[in-house]
Amino acid sequence: MRVLVVTAVDAERDAIVRGASATVPAGTGDPAGPVEFAVPGFVLRRPAPAPEPLVIDALAAGVGPAAAAAGAATALTAAALSGSPYGLVVSAGIGGGFTTPGRSAAVGSVVVSDAIVAADLGAETSAGFVPVTDLGFGTVEHRPPAALVRAVAEAAGAQRGDVLTVSTVTGTAERAAALVAARPSALAEAMEGFGVAEAAAAHGVPALEIRAVSNPVGPRDRAAWRIGDALEALSGASAALREALRAAPPESWSASESWSTSET
After folding, report:
1. Which residues lie closer than 8 Å to 111 by C-beta, 6 or more apart?
2. What pathway does this protein act in (predicted)?
3. Which of 37, 149, 190, 212 matches a 20 to 30 Å C-alpha distance to 116?
């Protein structure tokens, strides 16, 4: 199985590679460590090879849903044309964590997506925000295979919830409250997941999103961000992803829980 992990920036990509490399038994990997190779316009990094039929490639595609979609689509197309397509695409990185009634995504914790949601794709009207689906076209949600979500969340010790994709990072308590009111299952916010999921859906490949929480969603306070802690948590989640895929390969994802999209 080949897995493509798409991040926004190099630091996230390298955290993914470190975590995946940590699961390679001593003495079985390439002593030179991770390898790099190119697809048009991008550089992929691959952890040291392991004695198993599982390959994980990590790509830093850029910030925001458009860059993420472009990078993911390029890598997916290149892999398909080479005759060795990807079987799973993962959007991964750090992000903001929501506090919702009864639960909270604390700084340093990990969230695995039950749904990958475009939170601001639509139109502003006199009655408020209208999602693009209510305008009669498009989609605002992709749902990963439920069995895979459960396996990765259990392996990572992570919470499950909706991960919202925004083009503008939330910076006020009022906006954070509005997002949670519109999507009560929201646990994390980032900027790339929906773009990655759109590219995956165009290729008929399932997608997943994993976010390590670096800061609370709400008033912008850079002093409260814990990026280093979040990157460490992301490395741990990468190791857990590899272990989960060993334990729950694609054939274990039942037909009733297969990759799906939703228009609501």
Report:
1. 95, 97, 105, 158, 159, 160, 161, 163, 187, 188, 210, 211, 213
2. Quinol/quinone metabolism; menaquinone biosynthesis
3. 37
Domains of the chain: 2-262 (3.40.50.1580)
Report d(CA 198, CA 256) in Å as an integer: 21
Q: Does the pTM of the predicted model rise above 0.85?
A: yes
Picking from 190, 210, 187, 230, the residue whose alpha carbon sits closest to that of residue 88 is: 210
Asked if 90 and 16 count as a contact pair (C-beta separation under 8 A), the reply is: no
Give the model confidence (pLDDT) of 29-55 as tens digits.
555 567 788 888 888 888 876 667 889
For residue 61 the two structure tokens come to: 């595609």
